[in-house]
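Predict the assembly for these two chains.
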Amino acid sequence: MDFIEKARIMDGPRINRALARLSSEVVEENHGAGDLFLVGIRRRGVPLAERMAAKIADLEGYRPPVGVLDITLYRDDLSTVGAKPVVNRTDLPGDIENRNIVLIDDVLYTGRTIRAALDQLIDFGRPRRVQLAVLVDRGKEHRELPIQADYIGKLVPTKKSEIIKVMLQEFDEEEGVVIVERPSETA
Amino acid sequence: MTTVQTTFNRRHLLGIRDLEPGEIIHLLDTAETFRDVSKREIKKVPALRGRTVINLFFESSTRTRTSFEIAAKRLSADAVNVSVSTSSVTKGETLLDTARNLEAMAPDCIVIRHSMAGAPQHLARMCNAPIVNAGDGSHEHPTQALLDALTIREYKGRIEGLKVAIVGDILHSRVARSNIYLLTKLGAKVSVGGPGTLAPDEFVGIVDDGLTVERHFEDAIEGANVVMILRIQRERQDAAFFPSMREYAVHYGLQPRHLERAAPDAIVMHPGPMNRGVEISSEIADGSRSLILDQVTNGVAVRMAVLYLLAGGSHTATNTNGKSNASMRKPRRERKG
């Protein structure tokens, strides 16, 4: 399927600066990095979490642990999706009990992924606090659950017919965030 | 990373024989992920919440039935076990009537073990629910072959290019058949060994390529990376295939000295239940090469993967011909929330 690229809203350096700001906000809000535990949501939340951990290490001299959540088995639409989604590994290195968890994902849209991530996280233990950091927030009006981000790289109000495409070197050939739209679809 | 297209969109799991290599790899990859769930403190994920799995066992089983039950429960499905000794079969009900009555209670998957080859295929044709073959006569036992493959992959890192020896009662073994199909599809060489009555030469024809039959089981074991030992299936033997259990144990019971001819790092597997002192000596069963209990652990992961892939989606649409309605569904993009 061809998508029409409507706007390029972030390039590589801009993503990098946004992550730097998010990292320092996280450290400030949590009074250091000591109790932090970053958790990236597959797929693109994972490299974002790794990059933030590196930036926090630069700031504080301590690199917080980075975990990976695959929320497939916790999705609320498993019974309605056609082909079963591929299940990938969830890996949380170490105990999350009493830690300050920062969930990290690329885009916040309906909030359903974050709901699934929260449910899964709680099955692993009882963190002291869970916060949410996203590179792009598509705006509150799309939310289907009462979930908001604590740290936002860029707020991008969008239409439902639009899709936010986050490209990271780890998975894509380039770095950037673009708004695309399906040509046939009407808003 | 494999270049094979890996997906699994079937409605039933009836055997390994008609699966594509990519489908087998997809099942194994999914099982590998599910292995983690059993290592967690809360060994449960909500993937099949509100779904019902019926275990319909017409033959005795400890491992397989428990394994399917635990797999269903770890996926949050409700598991119901029906065993033949307490069922209406003893009152004269046919297999099909039993299955249709169970189906009227709207299960999302029926797992069946039966002494008749083809019983699961029959149900798959006549019923609407996804059917999993948990062993049918001497025909197939697909989840056993998958858990064996998962165990081999765990310890050897691959299947392709390995030499696997399967020794013992090949003729009556559904485990042997499913394993031969699976291992040769994924590029292993299989050699079976046993007395001529239990490992007949004609067996070589069940697959096109990759299988040899050896008369002396030491020859089958020669250079093997994996040695699978099979139980004597006395319940399926209707004639004298060997003079006595004692004689069989002397000539075909696996002893440590036999393993000297296998590869130095060969692993030993047995699908259970094992008869110590008959087809396998205790020294080997409890030895460092034995992966018998790892096989059982991996069995839960494989069955979780199978139940997730078969009972996880929406299949409640009107569908009476038993065919997959996957083609009618629109593939859906991964949605970000």
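The interface with chain A takes residues 7-9, 26, 29-30, 33-34, 36, 40-42, 44-47, 50, 75, 308-309, 312-314, 326, 329-332, 334-337 of chain B (CB under 8 Å). Chain B has ten helices and nine strands.
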